[in-house]
């Protein structure tokens, strides 16, 4: 009965109380009790109300931490337009509406309004102490750097060196790799398709396709006109996601910085470029992955020192979370410099932090779960990541800039559980 009551309350859509519902509620003033959107918070509430300069404003998702009562029906659903929220989704740490319950969050841990306001909710992700991560093999390759990695169904691996423009299909032996096929080509992104072939971004607007059986490279059906791909990902439902830009100087930001989603035939389905306030979502999108429920996770380069962040978007394009590193690892002296990113079968996000030689494990919305000091395991300069069908994860490493061609990059195979 309590659940039914919560669902009924969720049928009444309520928007920003300042602009009269034109935008979704994102903040609440705890002093004057106003629910407002981001624009009204910055342009109306504080500038126009003199008495409001000392008011406490909080994100609606953090209200429970301040001991204030939250009325779920006053919060607009971020995914379904015109729907008010009726439950709190414990697993994703977000408020959801009736449509979310039916489609996305069915069977997950849900919290009702009364329990939420009584503090019966954890606003931080649980520490997954059951996560285990262990090296099972180390391989020496013929490459100087391993910027890109993809694992085939038969256990063979594709590795790419973007600096030396070398791409290899290799067989793994006891402690080294044996080359099956070798290409001399520029590589800006690489991903394995559901047919076990390899998509490669080589600098043009059209992706190349390598047939793993024949070793032949041809033009693919995937192209982003007037743009240059910087990263590729193939989703679990076989869609192709491409990060791209208009070219020129990486920074300062000019032109387009976009993530494009295509179907198997190469038809564009959607693109992510701006948020609801027409602000850029990305500075320079480099690497991409996705979760089973459609979240798109992007490694976004922020400056010329390779400082970056992870941006997690819903399938509708709303920002679910951003991750800029962990305070125990990343400081102003050791900023977060993310490289490759993958998602596990349980939808946790794994990202390499090359300069600090850490591996960060995040929730599907970009919240920190834990991290691993790979340097303590003897692994230096981790860069690329790839998951195998057998449930292992590969980490490809690079050598320091300016290393001789004789320097051989290492490829590590990990067994993991709890991810």
UniProtKB/TrEMBL annotation:
GO terms for molecular function: ubiquitin protein ligase activity; zinc ion binding. Residues 11-60, 72-113 form the B box-type domain. It comes from the Eukaryota. It comes from Mytilus galloprovincialis (Mediterranean mussel). Keywords: Metal-binding, Zinc, Zinc-finger. The keyword Zinc applies. GO terms for biological process: protein monoubiquitination. This is B box-type domain-containing protein. SUPFAM superfamilies: B-box zinc-binding domain (SSF57845), Calcium-dependent phosphotriesterase (SSF63829).
